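Re: the request from the purification team.
They wanted to know what the chain is likely to look like in 3D before they choose a buffer screen. I agreed to run a prediction and write the result into the notebook, where they can find it.
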Amino acid sequence: LIEGEVTTVMTSVSYSQIVSPNLIAAATYDLIYLEGFLANPYRSVAAGGMLVSERMPGSRLRSALLGSVRRYLPRTQTTLIGSYRFYADDWGVLAHTPEVRIVQDTWRGLVVNLRLRWHHQGEADFFREIYDASNLITDPYLTDDEKLSAFDTLTAGIKLAAPGAFLCLPGLLATVRGEASFEYARQPSDFGDAVVAQVALILPFAS
């Protein structure tokens, strides 16, 4: 029987600034500390021609800084959103995530949201796909977790949102809001490409 405990402490600080009537800038800093059993008890690592249990550090300090800018163009009723996130931890993982979005108001309340996101990550200091026999003695940590490897992910998506009035629904149904989204993520072969689709219906209630 493998048992363990993990303690997580998180601190987050955010700041936003109205630069002009149509421009908003914001920044967020997250600091997360984990301590305890951080290994996956179900993961085995190839080392020296055999499978051994994963060995991970007993603590992890993670930090991330996110900056974003939102610009509204009244003439075309378009909102442009740009953001960049930098991530680093004491396991040696560094990541960069820029993202751009375009939100376009169209006729009769239909809103079109386009999204493009790129994530680039470097591997952890102790990550290996395969360890040799000497690593069993010299290396205190062993892992082949794909989430700690170096990889790139490109995500593109579209989201449509409209009230019931867009379909000429009468009365209260005109205030019902429908949303549909579709995203495609191009990922490394270890993860496999992903498709995410979602449909939502928002119903208003009068108090």
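For the purification team: The chain has one helix and eleven strands.
Please add any questions underneath this entry.
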